[in-house]
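Lecture notes, part 5. Sequence design as translation. It can be helpful to think of inverse folding as translation between two languages: the language of shapes and the language of residues. The source text, in structure tokens, appears below.
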């Protein structure tokens, strides 16, 4: 065994020149570690850890924490100049990339495939190893005996990896070094166990071994190919100084000197170096803290003025948002240094902000690549390209969020114009060690609010109440308020500063997603816009904002209720048109749920519309309307949600108010809600007008004809409605258009039923109730407050046939009334008139009615054919002599579904799609 000169880690690639030395005894090692503990009380500059000179001579060992290079390099004359510039390519491979022997070999292949003249490779420890090493220290200082078993697992992991990757003399050398290192670590951990404490130096020395072992294995793997490759222990080169809790700053001048000296000894074309670890100016091993391997790569890239630093990881690049929250997040091709910095600060998994500093000063690009998909080009972080278009879509590069925050609001009239108030507030916050994430102040200086982590807000609140006790008692401050359960959403983009309208688009997207903003902050650099909102709204807000800038202008998540005749036709129309809408109009319609009476089909990202019928039969769940709506409302993939009710069910219609209140838009041809109880209708419309949630129902009157929209257009432009009269039933239009000559009434009804124009029971049409519902809808749209019971309806079902138990019985008995109908037709024809079944809204007299009327043959209502509807609007602009007429097919699944489809597109337009 070697001595416990563990920091004098002998390079396995110098083993032929420097043979392993024998180890000190376990007792001597423990004594040495305890001596180190006692020395911790000395000033840093006086810290000396090592054996006495006699011991050192006896065992041939150097100081415990002093790298060999710190002694030997100083004595070597620089004979080889360290080249700098574009000939260098720096690669950093993370723990996932180095996770298995096969992956280490893949890394070696990538390195060998790089055509750069010189390559510097920085590696992390194998996956999970750094955590295992931290756990070793924790167990030892907790006096948990299982630290020995944990150390054995570390040894087994690396031994088995080496045996699979290496062979021959390379394997023997690595295993010899591994055995020696594990023996030394065992002695050190025993000392920590006895002391019940580990200093920072001890801990960082222990955890840094993972990088030593992974880098050695990679170096051997590259050497197997015959390439010239040297191994670098970066503790011999990188010098850092503490700059704060868990932070260090590189000493570039000293590090460059040491790199020059190191290179003079081993001027290889490929250098494999340890990430994460470094030394203090006193040559004490330390680390660059978490994410330190990226930092190592950036520092070394700066030292050699590399052409590029490539960070290899397990993702395709930097996403426009967290893909775990936004499944539609896209890979960004480029980012500026400032954008990457902002994203990192706000929690985006890009790079640690300090990683960017070394390369930014030398304009060295960083490229994020996927080790497991070499075809992916990745994301380049570099100086902002001068020719990048500053359009609204390109200026916002990404969105990031921070959760579990609290908003602290300090408010009072006594703050206005009083110097030092902000200083007093944030001095109190600083004294409790809280981290302020964001600050916002009104220009009136009446209030200041700021966000802090939830776990720190209690201490902040107590400190502020103590600091401003007198001001609160005197009323100069009105309150110190804490708002829990907050999150931050940040929009990041360098070009936001020069692009008008970005804030408007962001806040418009949030408003249309029904998101309330608590606080706003934006620096004068305009690199980011930060908003504070409820944590429960954060993911929805993130998706709404991301959708607005990165996806189609409008993305709609649609739930279809009732895949019957109209619903199925609508789904088929969507299937044929969704690709066209996305390509030509930037409208992305995703049907994420279909429910019938017994089955429902759910999807998080979109039902396959080419096979929805089969999937509804084979993959569906039992229908549950509450769960169906919950699936839609809780699916935060898409910010805009719409339920399309294609039923005629009053129970389904009774839920519209609750759905709108949840922020779900509603589109329907179902007349039951708008013709139901007046108070419920008024409640529904009041909610619709007071929110950004939309309720469209064009197809409730006239199927696909623009009846509702025409009426609204007249009213909104100031016209005064006097009368609305029309043939509103396609079924009854067909019947009376064909009730001519010698044809009997029963024959025409039978023909209409067989052609599918009527309901299964024709009495549902002939009763006039459906027409009455349309009349009441138009009356209410015109401002009349009428109930359905206020509309007199002339039923076409003879009193004697209303009691028939079935449609078949009714159809059998209907011919007995043909003579009565023939008489009415004869009387009309004798007067040069025709029979038409109409609905009338008499706005002037505030009433409506449904009746069978006679019209002259030259009247527009007499000119109809087939199942056409016709509606005449008499207004102050459109006089009785020449009313505004809307005419066209008013029945049938195709036109009704088309009307619903038009409402979907109208919703998209309201939400921001191009017109």
């Amino acid at each position: 065994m070697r001595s416990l000169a563990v920091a004098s880690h002998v390079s396995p690639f110098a083993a032929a020149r420097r043979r392993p030395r024998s180890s000190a005894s376990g007792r001597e090692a423990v004594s040495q570690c305890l001596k180190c503990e006692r020395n911790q009380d000395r000033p840093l500059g006086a810290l000396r850890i090592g054996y006495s000179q006699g011991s050192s001579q006896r065992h041939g060992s150097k100081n415990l924490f002093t790298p060999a290079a710190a002694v030997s390099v100083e004595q070597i004359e620089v004979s080889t100049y360290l080249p700098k510039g574009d000939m260098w390519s720096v690669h950093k491979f993370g723990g996932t990339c180095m996770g298995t022997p096969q992956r280490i070999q893949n890394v070696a292949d990538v390195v060998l495939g790089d055509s750069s003249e010189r390559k510097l490779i920085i590696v992390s420890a194998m996956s999970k190893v750094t955590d295992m090493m931290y756990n070793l220290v924790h167990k030892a200082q907790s006096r948990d005996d299982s630290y020995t078993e944990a150390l054995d697992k570390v040894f087994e992991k690396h031994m088995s990896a080496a045996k699979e990757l290496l062979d021959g003399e390379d394997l023997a050398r690595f295993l010899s070094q591994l055995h020696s290192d594990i023996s030394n670590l065992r002695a050190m951990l025993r000392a920590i166990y006895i002391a019940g404490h580990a200093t920072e130096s001890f801990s960082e020395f222990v955890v840094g071994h993972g990088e030593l072992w992974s880098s050695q294995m990679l170096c051997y793997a590259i050497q197997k190919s015959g390439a010239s490759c040297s191994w670098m222990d970066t503790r011999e080169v990188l010098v850092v100084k503490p700059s704060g809790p868990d932070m260090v700053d590189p000493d570039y001048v000293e590090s460059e000197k040491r790199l020059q000296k190191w290179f003079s000894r081993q001027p290889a074309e490929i250098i494999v170096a340890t990430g994460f670890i470094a030394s203090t100016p006193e040559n004490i091993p330390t680390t660059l803290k978490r994410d330190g391997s990226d930092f190592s790569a950036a520092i070394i890239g700066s030292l050699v003025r590399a052409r590029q630093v490539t960070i290899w990881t397990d993702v395709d690049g930097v996403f426009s948002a967290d893909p775990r929250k936004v499944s539609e997040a896209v890979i960004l091709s480029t980012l500026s240094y400032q954008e990457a910095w902002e994203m990192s600060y706000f929690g985006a998994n890009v790079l640690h902000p300090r990683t960017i500093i070394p390369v930014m000063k030398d304009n060295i690009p960083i490229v994020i690549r996927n080790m497991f998909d070499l075809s992916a080009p990745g994301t380049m972080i570099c100086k902002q390209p001068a020719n990048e278009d500053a359009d609204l879509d390109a200026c916002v590069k990404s969105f990031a969020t921070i959760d579990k925050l609290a908003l602290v609001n300090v408010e009072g009239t006594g703050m206005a114009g009083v110097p030092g108030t902000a200083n007093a507030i944030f001095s109190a916050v600083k004294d409790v060690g809280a981290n302020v994430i964001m600050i916002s102040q009104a220009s009136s200086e009446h209030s200041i609010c700021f966000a802090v982590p939830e776990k720190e807000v209690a201490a902040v609140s107590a400190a502020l109440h103590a600091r401003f006790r007198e001001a609160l008692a005197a009323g100069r401050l009105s309150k110190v308020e804490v708002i829990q359960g907050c999150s931050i959403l940040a929009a990041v983009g360098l070009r936001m500063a020069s692009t008008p309208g970005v804030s408007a688009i962001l806040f418009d997207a949030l408003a249309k997603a029904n998101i309330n903003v608590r606080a706003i902050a934006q620096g004068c650099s305009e690199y980011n816009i930060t908003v504070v909102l409820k944590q429960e709204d954060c993911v929805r807000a993130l998706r709404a904002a991301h959708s607005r800038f990165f996806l189609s202008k409008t993305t709609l998540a649609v739930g279809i209720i009732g895949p019957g005749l109209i619903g199925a036709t609508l789904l088929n129309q969507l299937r044929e048109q969704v690709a066209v809408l996305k390509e030509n109009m930037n409208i992305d319609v995703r049907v994420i749920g279909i429910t019938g009476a017994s089955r429902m089909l759910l999807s998080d990202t979109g039902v396959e519309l080419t096979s929805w019928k089969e999937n509804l039969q084979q993959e569906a769940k039992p229908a549950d309307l509450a769960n169906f709506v919950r699936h839609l409302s809780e699916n935060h993939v898409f910010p805009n949600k719409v339920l399309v009710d294609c039923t005629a069910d009053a129970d389904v219609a009774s839920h519209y108010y609750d759905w709108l209140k949840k922020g779900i838009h509603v589109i329907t041809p179902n007349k039951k809600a708008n013709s139901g109880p007046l108070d419920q209708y008024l409640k529904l419309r009041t909610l619709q007008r007071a929110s950004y949630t939309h309720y469209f129902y064009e197809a409730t009157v006239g199927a696909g004809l623009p009846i509702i929209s025409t009426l609204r257009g007249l009213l909104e432009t100031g016209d005064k409605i006097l009368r609305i009269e029309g043939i509103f039933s396609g079924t009854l239009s067909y019947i009376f258009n064909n009730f001519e000559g010698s044809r009997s009434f029963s024959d025409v009804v039978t023909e209409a039923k067989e052609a599918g124009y009527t309901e299964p029971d024709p009495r549902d049409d002939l009763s006039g109730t459906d027409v009455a519902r349309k009349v009441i809808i138009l009356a209410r749209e015109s401002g009349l407050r009428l109930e359905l019971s206020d509309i007199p309806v002339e039923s076409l079902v003879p009193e004697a046939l209303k009691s028939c138990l079935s449609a078949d019985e009714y159809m059998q008995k209907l011919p007995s009334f043909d003579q009565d109908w023939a008489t009415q037709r004869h009387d009309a024809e004798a007067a040069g008139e025709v029979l038409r079944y109409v609905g009338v809204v008499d706005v002037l007299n505030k009433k409506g009615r449904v009746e069978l009327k006679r019209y002259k043959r030259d009247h527009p209502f007499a000119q109809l054919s087939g199942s056409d509807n016709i509606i005449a609007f008499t207004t102050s602009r459109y006089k009785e002599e020449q009313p505004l007429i809307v005419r066209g097919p008013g029945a049938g699944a195709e036109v009704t579904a088309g009307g619903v489809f038009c409402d979907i597109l109208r919703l998209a337009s309201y939400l921001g799609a191009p017109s």
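The translated text above is only one of many valid answers, since several sequences can fold into similar shapes. DSSP finds 33 helices and 30 strands in the chain.
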